[in-house]
Amino acid sequence: LAVSGLVSLAPKELTRSVQVSFDVRILIIAVALAVLTSVIFGLAPALIASRGNVNRALHEESHQGTGGGNRLRSWLVAGEVACSVILLAGAGLLFRTVIGLQTVDSGLNPDKVLTFSVSLPGVRYGGGPKAVEFFSTAAERLSHLPGVRSASAISYLPFNGLAAGTDFQIAGRPPARPGEPLTTVVRTVLPGYFHTLGIPFEKGRDFTDADNVISSPYRFIVNEAFVKKYFPDEEPLGQQISVAMDAQNPFGEIIGVVGDMKEGTLDQEPQPTAYYIHAHLRYGGMVFVMQTEQDPLSLAGPARDVIQGLDRELSVFDVHPMTTVVRQTFARQQFSAVLLGGFSIASLLLAAIGIYGVLAYSVTQRTREIGVRVALGAEPRSIIRLIVASGARMVIAGALAGLAAALLLSGLLKSLLYGVRPRDPLTFIAAPAILVTVALLAAYAPARRASRVSPMEALRAE
Q1: Who has the most CB within 10 Å: 56, 201, 292, 397?
Q2: Cβ(271)–Cβ(225) below 8 Å
Q3: What is the C-alpha radius of gyration for the chain, rounded to an integer number of angstroms?
Q4: Which residues have C-beta within 8 Å of that of residue 143, sequence separation ≥ 6?
Q5: Has residue 10 got a pLDDT over 70?
Q6: Residue spans of alpha helices (H) in 376-422
Q7: pLDDT above 90: percentage of residues in the chain
Q8: How far is CA 381 from the centre of its chain?
Q9: Structural contact between residues 339 and 100, judged by C-beta atoms closer than 8 angstroms
Q10: Predicted pLDDT at 90
Q11: Cα–Cα dist 63/65, whole Å
């Protein structure tokens, strides 16, 4: 309950991190609810027993406890089984999603890449040549640090969903019809960005230092998704486009085509993207990326020294390995899978305990009957079958009810799933199968004990 409450209070934060702040109020409410539930379910049998009469109790006892009490216990255990199946099915779908997301090609190589952000104060740098010079100089000095293979910067990293988007035009084509604009995601980069993150060039070339000058002609690099959508049967290199990101929107040449990267999260398809060189779309805040030869975090200190060596008043923030940035894209699914998996295990354990308790109590009530059966020649295995069968009935009933409910509720997880259907057959076969297996194992212990009852023990029990 406490964990569920914390999750409900911070659903947005879970999309980027699995850390949830501790709240004493939620813990108090959870403890209070647990105590209240225990008291209610503890008092209910006592109240029922206090209102009974001796004649009825003796009558039910003479029928080996086949009255409403046993039926109620069986229905409660069946309910536990149904809940377990629902939770197991949900956890199975989410675990398969997390496994699938880990194998998705993100379009880049995040290994041994350090990322960190730097924001320039507008008062001192503005949006002109000073900002361009600072980021260019910083990237160059970072690339010369021992253990650094290359360094560059980008306005917004992939996967964080913060990239700009806008309309654009293609030279030589008529304007887009109303309501059907040509749109693209827009990012601005420094030379060497694609090499640093291992993003392959399909055609053309990268930006150079000569391109990163305010007075240089406008040039663009686009991704494969951009080409497939807007130049499916044409050569993209040399095409002129005008991207609506500033007042002038001059046309510029497409000089390169790079591979696609996932946009926002790994479970989203790549979007058409146009890359500016920083001098032509200047940002006061950029994210540096450094490809290293060792643990990326070991170079966080030297990188900070480089930035503060250029300007002591600047701070470095959001320092993360690129692998962490990629992993955070499915943090919500991962956390949900772990959370639901934990609930599933707890529910499975409670169901097993409930089945064991009901059958153990049933064996105690039926001691005389079992003793008579043994005296008449019943084999131990037939006694075991008898007890297990009585438990199997409530388990199968609960499993079928839980399976039906899980199929109805699985659509609620659709937004969290990737690479697996909400009603995946494998998951919905495995969930009740696991539950039934555990339940039958729980039923075997009291059944085996019943098979060892001797007629003399039965008489003494009476």
Answers
A1: 292
A2: yes
A3: 33
A4: 149, 150, 151, 192, 290
A5: no
A6: 380-409
A7: 34
A8: 46
A9: no
A10: 85
A11: 6
Cα distances from 339 to residues 8, 248, 361, 432, in angstroms, run 12, 51, 33, 19
| Residue matched to tokens 């309309």 | 167
With H, G, I as helix, E, B as strand and everything else as coil, classify residue 286: strand
Q: How many CB atoms lie within 10 A of CB 58?
A: 9
Question: Distance between CA 462 and CA 452 in Å, rounded?
Answer: 17
> How many of the other CB atoms lie within 10 Å of CB of 40?
9
- Relative orientation angle of helices 367-375 and 331-365, to the nearest 10 degrees: 70
Is the pLDDT at 62 greater than 70, yes or no? no
Q: At residue 221, what are phi and psi to the nearest 5 degrees?
A: -120, 135
Instruction: Provide CB contacts within 8 A for 426, sequence distance 6+.
Output: none
Contact 117, 270 (CB under 8 A): no
Other C-beta atoms within 10 Å of 6: how many? 18
- Residue 81 has phi, psi (to 5 degrees) of -60, -45
In whole angstroms, how far apart are CA 280 and each of 123, 128, 135, 248, 286?
Answer: 20, 10, 13, 11, 14
**Could you tell me which of 321, 327, 318 has the C-alpha nearest to residue 287?**
318
